Every structure is written in C-alpha cells, then in structure tokens.
Amino acid sequence: MDIRQTIQDQITKHAVVLYMKGSPDFPQCGFSANAVRLLRASGVDQIFAVDVLQDPAIRQGIKEFSNWPTVPQLYVNGEFVGGSDIMTEMYQSGELAALIKPGA
Fold first, then answer.
1. N or C terminus: fewer CB in 10 A for the chain?
2. Cβ(9)–Cβ(58) below 8 Å
3. CA–CA distances in Å: residue 92 to residues 38, 98, 101
4. How far is CA 78 from each of CA 10, 74, 100, 103, rounded to the nearest angstrom?
5. pTM recorded for the entire structure
6. What is the mean pLDDT of residues 37-46?
7. How many domains does the chain have?
8. pLDDT at 46 over 90
C-alpha cells in the first residue's frame, strides 16, 4: 500500500485524526501539544494520532496529501481542517467543538 492510500485509509476509518510530532501523551513540539489540548478541550477523549517523526514517508506524504506544509494537521470525518493556528481560531469561535461533536 502506498503512502497516499495509507493516509486515505486512516482518515476514512477514524472520525478524528491528528498527524503530529510525538503522541497525545508526549507531544514533541508546542504546536502538536496545542492541537492535542484543543481537541481534548473540545471533548475528544480518544485521538487517533499519527506520529510523523516515526515514519519519514508519512511525514512527507501528509504534506503532499493535504498540500499543507506543516504539522500538526487535523482531519475530521475525512476532511482536512488545518493546523494548530486554524484549530486555535476555530476553538475560540466554537467551530471546532461543533465540527467534532457529531463525529467524535
């Protein structure tokens, strides 16, 4: 299975997918830590997280898949939402919780 298919399978099989550096319990950068904090504050108990530091092919592949140059990247119900800054704006406006609640 190629990387695009692996990513497609991950975002199809899980309602909330976070491509990040590290894990939800041990984020390896401040942006990833912020993303996890926002998801948890929005009511997500189980985060399907993919540690891009563990697989260089995923790390590059997710950037190409989304056409977004940075990590973390959030997908909800198979749709790309954005990175840490977009998640912060959506959280502050209430959009993040509204988006996640139906699928989480």
1. N
2. no
3. 10, 12, 15
4. 9, 10, 12, 10
5. 0.94
6. 93
7. 1
8. no
